[in-house]
């Protein structure tokens, strides 16, 4: 009996629907036309013009500062949470802990942004890069914890017990055995956290203050008041950074022999 190719065509159609607008955006970033209504030749002038936009570079600096800082702290907290969930799995306290860690993955971003804004306003915290940093750590921790936890599920505890029987202390065991074995999971979680942080718009929009504009917020403001070719060029660069981080994360976290 011949198999139906309908699922294949549905998948292909969905992929075209998702990626065709992105492809058009990338192509228009190299279009010499100012308004992108028609192709007027290949040009890199819009990328060159980005070098003379100080507000864009200030927003990029803010994005990278927050992304690197949130990634670093999320790796520490997320890895610790993953170890706790793996080591004490099955207890009632850890089930509650797992629910708390998993919740930011399913809570709508707009709800999280509003709740964080209300929390900052209630405590009198001034909105700025600090509040963006805290907000990004809030959701990045969960992604790191789930990524490292998936790596720990394949972890062989007998190796640790063997090292302990041979006289290795906890510090040596962790540094020379545990850390190298879970390093791919930590690296993948870090890259995922960095990607989510540098791309986030909704939560950042709620908790950002004066002088703390990030790159996604800057792109949003340029859509209303800026130049479309510059938006295409800036978005293409951001896409390149994002896709590179995602591909590296997948390659690192993929199982190897």
Topology overview:
Blueprint: H1 6-28, H2 45-50, H3 54-87, H4 92-106, H5 109-123, H6 129-152, H7 157-165, H8 170-199, H9 202-207, H10 215-225, H11 228-253
Determine the mean pLDDT. 83
- What is the straight-line distance between the termini? 37 Å
| Number of beta strands | 0
Unreliable parts: none
Secondary structure: helix percent: over 70%
Query: What is the overall number of helices?
Result: 11
Which class do the helix and strand fractions yield? Answer: mainly alpha
Could you explain the architecture of this structure?
It contains eleven helices and no strands. With 257 residues, it is mainly α. The chain has one domain: MetI-like fold. Helix 3 packs parallel to helix 6, helix 3 crosses helix 10 and helix 8 runs antiparallel to helix 11 (228-253). The longest helix has 34 residues, at 54-87. The radius of gyration is 22 Å and the shape is globular.
